[in-house]
Amino acid sequence: MFTLRYTEEAEQHYESLKTARGKQAEYKAVVKALRFLAENPRHPGLNTHEYESLTGPAGVKVWEAYAQNKTPGAYRIFFSYYPPKTNTITVIAILPHH
To answer: Do residues 67 and 93 touch, judged by C-beta distance below 8 A?
Structure first.
């Protein structure tokens, strides 16, 4: 199990999705994906892979996990294993794919 921490930006994304009209399905998918992320970041449904065009805190790698797939504007979760060598994942952003 991993502990999830959220950057201020990720917290804002989560809260805005939670209260957005007509986004209940997206919110539910993000909640489920965050649960999978905490349980097993390599869960097959997350399609987790390194996101090479971004660097996380202190230069750590950034990873992308799918909250949705094969959906226009599908939500993605960007995260780092930060601080390193702990069971902590820092969620950097929760955004729709463009």
So the answer is: no
Residues 6+ apart with CB under 8 A from 65: 33, 36, 37, 41, 46, 47, 48, 76, 77, 78, 79
- The fold of the 3-96 domain, in CATH, is YaeB-like fold (3.30.2310)
Global confidence as pTM: 0.92
pLDDT in tens, 40-88: 999 999 999 999 888 887 888 999 999 998 887 899 999 999 988 889 9
Sign of the CA dihedral 39, 97, 9, 82?
positive
